[in-house]
Amino acid sequence: MKPFIYDFTLEELQAWAVEQGEPAFRGSQIFEWIYVKRVNSFEEMTNLSKALRQKLDDQFQFVTLKEITKFESKDGTVKFLFGLHDDHAIETVIMKHNYGNSICVTTQVGCRIGCTFCASTLGGLKRDLTAGEIVAQVVKAQQILDERGERVSSIVIMGTGEPFENYDNTMKFLRLMIHEKGLNIGQRHITVSTSGIVPSIYKFADEGTQINLAISIHAPNDALRSKLMPVNRRYPFDDVMEALRYYQAKTGRRISFEYALIGGVNDQVEHAEELASVLKDMLCHVNLIPVNHVPERKYVRTSRNDIFKFQRALADQGINVTIRREQGHDIAAACGQLRAKHMESNAR
Q1: Most Cβ neighbours (<10 Å): which of 133, 239, 245, 312?
Q2: What is the pLDDT of residue 330?
Q3: Long-range contacts for 23-31 (Cβ within 8 Å, ≥24 apart)?
Q4: Beta-bridge partner residues of 109
């Protein structure tokens, strides 16, 4: 199969152009066609010679994201299920905020982390996405927003999959997104979320970026976290926290902790107080997420009253905490829900 053009950096495209006997700036022109003019074919690159366009067509291909289904929420959230070249499917979400448009991207087909409250892990991990397949989700979203005269203002890597288990492709994607000659997304407008892959947290700390880091924590201690997140048995709670402290010491950046509240499981005041004691010396923010009901899972949402009690218990201990604004609740916009329905339908 021909490689995806989105998999290549500006420097790699410049090197390719030189290999074809062309000046390096031809690679810059190709990069501009891809990310600034956002074309969907090499034929549209009209300031390149016909011969060069033919070479591009012979050697590369655009990522095909076939729209399988699309749901639009009354709050402006749009969720897509896209088909890939190998008949796998991935989800991408456009979320409208008062500060702009945020895109939630997927980094893997399926997920092997196994969080017991999440739909993404149903069916396990099928494969990693290439950097170009992640890029294509943002470019597709931007093409849709182009029609409204709007742009992608932020990116969250919180879709299906564990980005730090697809580390190299995720980092290449990030470098392509922040490139000043491309989409030029501000580093501080990008957040990558991990379940706590310890070696990759250390690597990410040493990257020297300004990209935000979020951790799916979901429990205040090792025993409860292992019940909810099997990955905790591989990378125990204390090891994750040690890696995060290294990250903070190295970067000086605030860490976001994502905490899914599950009725009667991890949502009591004593859980909040224990979490506060763990986080008290860290520059951090806790984002409380009332768990989405997944038909295949047994968990229930925390009551509204208990959500606010949990929030107050953290705030009383000096922890910066918010309750996530729910978006796309009416269209099953949580990770993996749409793909799970698609898989079930195809299995019939």
Answers
A1: 133
A2: 56
A3: 26/52, 28/181, 30/5, 30/56, 31/181, 31/182
A4: 127
pLDDT along the chain (348 residues), means of 10: 97 98 98 98 98 98 95 91 96 93 97 87 91 98 96 96 98 98 97 98 97 98 96 97 98 97 95 98 96 71 94 98 74 54 53
pTM of the predicted model, to two decimals?
0.92
Confidence (pLDDT) at 116 = 87
Check residue 75 and give its pLDDT: 86
Kindly state the helix (H) or strand (E) to which residue 128 belongs, with its residue range: strand 125-128
Q: Would you give the distance in Å from CA 251 to the centre of its chain? A: 21
- Is 216 within any annotated ligand binding site? yes
305 in Cβ contact with 317 (< 8 Å): no
pLDDT attached to residue 99: 87
- Asked whether residue 284 is marked as a ligand-binding residue, the answer is no
All domains of the chain in start order, with CATH: 5-59 (1.10.150.530), 66-347 (3.20.20.70)
- Whether residue 217 is annotated as binding a ligand: the answer is yes
22-61 exposure pattern, b = at least 16 Cβ within 10 A, e = fewer: beeebbbbbbbbbbeeebeebeebeebeeebbebbeeebb
162 is in an annotated binding site: yes
8: left (phi over 0), alpha (psi -120 to 50) or beta: beta
The H-assigned helical ranges of 252-317 are: 269-279, 304-316
Catalytic center residues:
91, 335
Q: Are 193 and 216 in contact (CB under 8 A)?
A: yes
Question: CB burial class (10 A; 0-12, 13-18, 19+) of residue 150?
Answer: middle
